[in-house]
Amino acid sequence: MNTGEGTIGPVEHPVPTDATIKALYGSALRCGFPECMQSLYRVSETGERILNSEVAHIHARREGGPRWNAAMSREENRGFGNLILLCKPHASEVDDTPQHFPAELLREWKRA
Ligand SMILES: [Zn+2]
């Protein structure tokens, strides 16, 4: 098994399972950013249901990414507790300017 230890190159954890993603979408209706009213899906002008959100990692999936936590196991990293649903603009914002969005803050949003 590849534990990420002793390998060459940055660690990259596996993506969350479908079951975890389903559980996330079953647990929320709106973006996790405080007071953001964006729904996780929207209806397009042509009547289709369009995904309006992303599964964001509290601690990045890739070594060196936003809020990377080297102590975290792969199962913790891809687990429900490390993931938060955000609308697409907010998903970009928390990863592009992670200095404003520490892990503890994101965990608080998730609890709210
Ligand atoms: Zn949002």
In short:
With about 110 residues, this protein is an alpha+beta fold.
In words, what does this structure look like?
- The chain has 112 residues and is an alpha+beta fold.
- It has one domain.
- Helices cover 29% and strands 14% of the residues.
- It is built from four helices and four strands, in the order αβββαβαα.
- The chain has helices at 18-27, 74-77, 88-96, 103-111; strands spanning 41-43, 49-51, 53-57, 83-87.
- The strands form two sheets. The chain has a two-stranded antiparallel ribbon. Strands 3-4 form a two-stranded antiparallel ribbon.
- Strand 1 (41-43) and strand 2 form a beta hairpin.
- Zinc ion is lined by residues 31, 33, 36, 38, 86-87, 90.
- Zinc ion (ZN) is lined by residues 31, 33, 36, 38, 86-87, 90.
What about the largest sheet? Answer: 2 strands, antiparallel
Number of helices: 4
Strand residue content: 5-15%
List the domain count as a whole number.
Answer: 1
Euclidean distance between termini CA atoms: 37 Å
Low-confidence stretches: none
Could you tell me which ligands this complex binds, including any ions or cofactors? zinc ion
Radius of gyration: 15 Å
On the 0-100 scale, what is the average pLDDT?
94
- The helix-strand sequence is HEEEHEHH
Outline type: globular
Helix/strand structural class:
alpha+beta
Count every beta strand, where a strand is a DSSP E run of 2 or more residues.
4
* Major beta sheet, strand line-up: 1-2
Helix content: 25-40%
